[in-house]
Specification:
Blueprint (H helix, E strand, L loop, with lengths): L6 H4 L27 H7 L2 E5 L2 E4 H11 L12 H27 L6 H12 L5 H12 L3 H23 L6 H10 L5 E2 L2 E9 L17 H19 L4 H11 L10 E6 L5 H8 L10 E3 L2 E11 L2 E2 L2 H30 L3 E3 L1
Antiparallel strand pairs: 1-2, 1-9, 3-8, 4-5, 4-7, 6-7
């Protein structure tokens, strides 16, 4: 996982109240009070791995799982069944990696200056709406001990410091490297012709279903009924003057899935448009509204927002984003290399 291990982002001691089936639900606010009973506390304390003798627990693992998949908080702590095993395995690898990094920092005798630790503690405490909430959290998570909290914060800062040395500082990408990549992969920056458009569509009376994803074509009578609705939709569409007006109308009367996005398809490659729509769009100017177009068993009205001819992106257009992408990729590579190096002489047991 490619992420910055800032102490506040880690929320190392955030409470993990358990829901049904002993599944932890990570609160959105770390000040939220823990509500765990004795059995649940035992479950959270269950060892999941040992890294050179240091025990990592179910609590550590669950926190990382929620960092990977925060949307689970919206579903009473549940993870999608199809994804849960992969999320769990990825989280396990991450907490093992973090512990290895921490142990390496200690081996190198890296330390955290008292002033920096105090500042980090102050920032952490500032997340709580009151001193009472902070004290309640501290009691639930750290046995009321400020020293335990400070140890956790110091650990996080040491992980961050070692990763800065081994990953962040070594991931610098020069503009010369960026230009060389650009020249070597010119095909990647060759943009195909595309159209930015909105649609209002009048569909057949029987929409597709899972059992019948491709319904039969409309009958002649259905085409007549659709035509009547489509002509009324066209009359209203022609009266619109702006993107917003057309979009609001699409939300009200369009029958395709894009109605929830103001009919906006964003930018679509020419090759992905139905031939009839491509033919019409190619003759239009931005801001223009088409006549009725019969395509894919429906009547469609399009508003052309932009026509983007095929072209080669210039280096200056892409250099900034490309440099950031290349640096992210290099950081990921350096992380993997560091993980492999630290694991080589370590004893990592998954329980």
């Amino acid at each position: 996982m490619n992420r910055h291990l800032a102490v506040i982002a880690l929320l190392l001691a955030a409470a993990l109240p358990l829901q049904a089936q002993n599944r932890a639900a990570h609160p959105a606010n770390p000040a939220q009070e823990a509500a765990v009973n004795g059995n649940e506390m035992v479950q959270l304390a269950k060892p999941v791995a040992r890294v050179n003798g240091t025990v990592l627990t179910e609590r550590d693992l669950l926190r990382e799982m929620y960092a990977i998949f925060p949307y689970a908080r919206q579903h009473n702590g549940g993870f999608p069944r199809a994804m849960e095993a992969d999320i769990r395995q990825g989280a396990l690898r991450m907490i093992e990696f973090e512990e290895l990094v921490y142990q390496e920092a200690k081996r190198r005798k890296m330390t955290v200056a008292p002033a920096r630790l105090a500042k980090a503690e102050k920032e952490f405490r500032a997340q709580f709406p009151s001193e009472e909430k902070f004290r309640g959290y501290l009691q639930a998570e750290d046995g009321g001990s400020l020293q335990v909290l400070r140890t956790k914060i110091a650990r996080s800062l040491l992980i961050e410091d070692l990763l800065k040395v081994e990953v962040t500082d070594r991931s610098w990408i020069s503009m010369t490297e960026v230009r060389a990549y650009y020249q070597k992969h010119l095909e990647r920056f060759n943009l195909a012709q595309s159209f930015s458009l909105q649609t209002i569509t009048v569909m057949p009376p029987v929409p597709p279903t899972p059992k019948q994803p491709t319904p039969p074509p409309p009958t002649p009578q259905q085409w007549m009924q659709m035509r009547a609705r489509a002509e009324e939709a066209l009359r209203q569409a022609k009266a619109t003057k702006t993107y917003e007006e057309f979009g609001i109308l699409a939300e009200k009367i369009s029958e395709d899935d894009y109605r929830v996005m103001m009919g906006d398809h964003r930018s679509v490659d020419a090759k992905d448009l139905p031939p009839a729509i491509l033919q019409a769009a190619s003759k239009m100017q931005p801001g223009q509204i088409s006549d009725l177009i019969q395509a894919d068993g429906a009547y469609t009205i399009i508003r052309l927002n932009a026509h983007n001819p095929a072209r080669m992106q210039k280096f200056d257009e892409v250099s900034s984003g490309l440099r950031a992408e290349m640096r992210r990729n290099k950081q990921e590579m350096l992380r993997h290399e560091l993980d492999a190096k630290l694991r080589k002489n370590a004893k990592v047991e998954e329980l």
